[in-house]
Amino acid sequence: MSQTTHSPTDIALHTAPSFVDTVRRRQSYRDFLPAPVPGPLLREVLTDAQCSPSNCNTQPWNMHIVSGQTRQDLSRALHEANKQGQVSPDFFWDEKAYRGAYGERRQEQGGIYYRNLGVARDDLDGRAAAGARNFSFFGAPHVAMLFMPTVGDGVRVAGDLGMYGQTFLLALAARGLGGVPQTVLGLYADTVRDVLGISPDLKLLYGISFGYPDLGAASNRTPMGRADLSESVTFHS
Ligand SMILES: Cc1cc2nc3c(=O)[nH]c(=O)nc-3n(C[C@H](O)[C@H](O)[C@H](O)COP(=O)(O)O)c2cc1C
Fold this sequence. Notes:
The protein has 9 helices and 4 strands, in the order H-H-H-E-H-H-H-E-H-E-H-H-E. By secondary structure, it is α+β, with helices and mostly antiparallel strands. The protein has one domain: NADH Oxidase (3-Layer(aba) Sandwich), CATH 3.40.109. Strands 1-2-4-3 form a 4-stranded antiparallel beta sheet, with helices on both faces. The structure holds flavin mononucleotide.
């Protein structure tokens, strides 16, 4: 779908940004170069992510990183499950439940993604194909699957996994790498557990495809905007 325009070496040249640059320039990428992330670099990223805060320091994240042949096998199994409609989410997902401003932002995000790929609003096949790119991990050489133990209603642990996921994404960004969180992978929890041989006691919250982003790809062209602070923050004094 996209042509490679940046090599990993090019990208390494503009690494080590400030913290503020790292936070503000991080974005979700949906096209990657095929080059794998070197093992020592990946361990640095994971060591950063391990510094994430959690309720009572319980550190309930359980991360499975999938690469190489297993990544190929998992991608094939996910495409097949998607084709057969074999969804098996551990956690309920209802996009229609996002109403008002939340629903508008959700639609705007999807619109930008499809437009960047040149997929028209009424092109249902094109939209399905664009959505199915999730199961090819957008060409990333690695996908991390974030599992959690069952503790109460799961909300506190899910909050901890959110903290962990963002630290992981920022640690990637700080090194010229990038990723995209993917709830859609969590909709096929049984498929992922089967391929990776994971106990049903561990619940799949989301995945993160990651690697060296293809900065020239159309899908990566438009950074998503954010609401004004006044829509999210209330000051009390
Ligand atoms: C928990 C979570 C799940 C997400 N799931 C998906 C997904 O399944 N597929 C996808 O393409 N993007 C997914 N995204 C990426 C969001 O669309 C993206 O974060 C949002 O549009 C803001 O854009 P930015 O990350 O580039 O700033 C997810 C993001 C989060 C935080």
